[in-house]
Amino acid sequence: VKKLRQEFSVTFSYPVIFTRDIFSTRNDTLPQLLEPAGCTAAVVVADAGLLQAAPGLHDTMRRYLYALPGISLREIVVVPGGEEAKRGERIADRIREIIHRYGLCRHSHVIAVGGGAVLDAAGYAAATAHRGVKLIRVPTTVLSQSDAGVGIKNGANAFGSKNFLGTFTPPAAVVNDSDLLRTLPSREVRAGMAEAVKVAVIKDSTFFRFLESRSGLLAALHPGTVEQLIERCAEIHLEHIRSGGDPFERGSARPLDFGHWSAHRLEELTGGELRHGEGVAVGIALDCEYAEMQRLLSSQEKERVLAVLRHIGLPLSHPALAELNIPRALEDFRRHLGGHLSVTLPRGIGAAVQVARVDVPMMEECRRTLLRRERVDEQ
Amino acid sequence: VKKLRQEFSVTFSYPVIFTRDIFSTRNDTLPQLLEPAGCTAAVVVADAGLLQAAPGLHDTMRRYLYALPGISLREIVVVPGGEEAKRGERIADRIREIIHRYGLCRHSHVIAVGGGAVLDAAGYAAATAHRGVKLIRVPTTVLSQSDAGVGIKNGANAFGSKNFLGTFTPPAAVVNDSDLLRTLPSREVRAGMAEAVKVAVIKDSTFFRFLESRSGLLAALHPGTVEQLIERCAEIHLEHIRSGGDPFERGSARPLDFGHWSAHRLEELTGGELRHGEGVAVGIALDCEYAEMQRLLSSQEKERVLAVLRHIGLPLSHPALAELNIPRALEDFRRHLGGHLSVTLPRGIGAAVQVARVDVPMMEECRRTLLRRERVDEQ
Fold first, then answer.
1. Nearest CB partner across the interface for B14, out of A6, A18, A168
2. To probe the interface with A, which of B7, B26, B128 has the most A CB atoms within 10 Å?
3. Residues B86/B56, Cβ–Cβ less than 8 Å
4. pLDDT tens-digit profile of A123-158?
5. Interface ipTM
6. Nearest residue of B to residue A19 by CA position?
């Protein structure tokens, strides 16, 4: 028996650029990103929901992109937005077929413009074609600009499981254009803020105080304040990937998934009627109640978290909570992480702990508290 | 405009173990690999070609694997060997469906036992399920044990393109069992030696002299000598990935693909009748003729390379060479690499250069030389 040990490191690097009016002829963000790579070919994958909400955007994109010097843009592929983009491999396959048809190579670019689901599907296609065509993400929702859109995951749903397919593949670049958010329904903007509350509670008390003091402006969807929220949230997300010690999530801990074990199930139970961010808000509320019972949060701290969510206009509860099978949701979460259960709970505001066990009767008590609270709020 | 730069490194590490009789109860290689991961579930993907060539192996595997303490082996999935395993996503999908059915998580293992194509398909499935289930490769051919099986790629064919789908995903471990090679037809054993000649010529003159002095033993398929060839070839391959500076092949250079631009096409032109290793042998001969014309190899050095190939029993030419569209094969190769053309040629024996241009008439002259040589050899 002879044993060799292989070991090597790979460095990943990409810019995250905050800009406005990305498809204006005066904006050189995209040409600058495309040029240094010696890229000659690119395809754009655009979110049909975005194009519908922003009449004229398709034409603007077309005019801008086809005129870029030195770039041979082959096609603007319009794909359905939302979970439809991730239903199996249908959309990813369509994108891969286009990558093949136009002879794109590993140095070519897929430019994905849209919400998180479209970015996930396009990212999955790009990551698995030629073992990795370059991906430029242009997220167009508060949620994707502040969270997953700046991260390193992609995915598609399969066999009834969310994100069963996917890889960890850092993008070539991310461009956050605040002007693209203007087309979003206000409900989507608010839902997107839930991930910011999430990271603030478990990672950054200064950011939490910012959200507290600006909750009125955020509720009013004040553009400059929403931009500040996105920038800081994206920054924390990037820092977590960079410094968290486990970018490709080989361990069982998933510290950023605070509030998510129940959120995923609530989205499913409501058939997607509850937006992801809204589910996360309810999940945060539930886990804060539990953290208080575990003496990880004081009553006053918990109330501060719930108050921020409420002031922004996010739900703290939902009738579907009553149907949540808590042990099963925890087991599904464990299985998704792999290995042992690891649930993130806040410890005070701005820090977190991982717990390997959840006291189910106590969690059920927390659920009852939230459901009661909802009835009181409704009266 | 605000710009953040994300940068982080990920370290990949895996053992490559050389053993015998891996499924014997006295062999603890697999349990040792599975245990430290806290793995509870695993599925085996086995090459139908191997099981057919080795009657009794299926039962031996079954008895051994289901008896492993602490491991819950869910199924031994038998898949077709050879390129059939990589025809689109059919086989990869079947493996992913099984990963889903048995609730395997990111800490579970897929154990792939077979030739390069089966390892590629199983690896692609494992890499894209749950964003990466662990993969243990048990390569069962000389080619896969010495080359791709110890590397970091996986793949499947799609849209008529070889390896159009795939990722760079290091395995959790590789186990090379020399006993598994006994079932191979002698033609397959010989074909597998072509990659060893390849790396020796461009990377290691000592290894080349080893091959030269042992060519008689290699032609006779002497097991101990074949094992030595595999070990050294695997070692060079691992070292190249580790120290070559570009493990995920982001640049255009592909230094290990010496002889491959024509080999891929010859495999296609013969409908797979020419084995991959045989195509590589012809490709090496062709590029050595060219290297001599470019004064990169002396006539004597070239003859030494051709002699090793011939003594081992590998072809130096093939009638399909006459049909090779040289400019188009080079263009396909460039496109597959992405970016600029970069062809590896030997510089003396044991070193290499990358050339960005190939003189097509001169290469055609080299082809004629080989075709003539074949006719002379046949007489």
1. A6
2. B128
3. no
4. 999 999 999 999 999 999 999 999 999 999 999 999
5. 0.94
6. B1
